[in-house]
Amino acid sequence: MKYFSIILGTVLALALTVSAETVLVNPSKPIKSSRAESSLRCGGVLNGAEGGISYKPYESILPNERCVWTVQANNAEGYNLNILRLGSEEGTEITASCVKGPWAMWSYPVSSTGEMNRTISECPVLVITLYSTGSSQTARGFILEYEAKITSGSNKISTNSRQQITNAESGHIRYPGNGLNYTNSEVSTFVFAPKNNIYAARKNASVIFVEDWLDDVHCYDTIHVFHLKSVTGERRVWDWASAVCPGTDMMELSNHDDLILVVFLTDENRTGSGFHLIHSRK
Known about the structure:
single chain; mainly beta; 6-stranded mixed β-sheet; 1 helix; globular; disordered N terminus; CUB_dom; disulfide bond; Sperma_CUB_dom_sf
């Protein structure tokens, strides 16, 4: 394995290994969506063809809260959203975003109740983000429902795609791990949130990539990194920050003080044993 001693030394220094499970905090009141699968916490991974998120709809959002939910329904090509309740937006932003492929994350503001006036199309993985400012005092949360638009066509992504969220201070993710190879046509995401999902200024997260083995033909199996930031001085979006191609033994992907999204995309040719993501926030 490439750089095994570096990986082992780094992981021992961190003294914490993060599993593939989502790390979640801050449960809200037990107000449920009527959909089959739902999340009541700040962040989570949803895999049902329909589901909902109910987060603090009648409670105050904390200053500097950061919550991310990812939705990957099998064979989905898009999603319809219905916003059932939306509290005060003072100091908060809620955004629905799509992983569209290399270099691109499309974002749509969630700013009113009712059905969104568009199907979020060409969207195998949906990302819902809640952001609050340091001055947020009276803002409330939201309830939304989603329904996947299912495709039987050839543009389906691998059902082995993995969506993962962690707010651990440090850790080591090996993907896919357990002696397995990743699969063709994957769209897998890894979200790095601050501890307790509360932003702390000048406390950057470093994410280091170490390759095991990726298909090294023409950079078809790639990793792209997005940062949540205000690009135009207005609403925050997922802004492309960096990328890495096969053949890169080791590289710092990101050093950013806010939310980080790492996206792994594969083609339909050879597969490999994957990579490591070593992360810490200081």
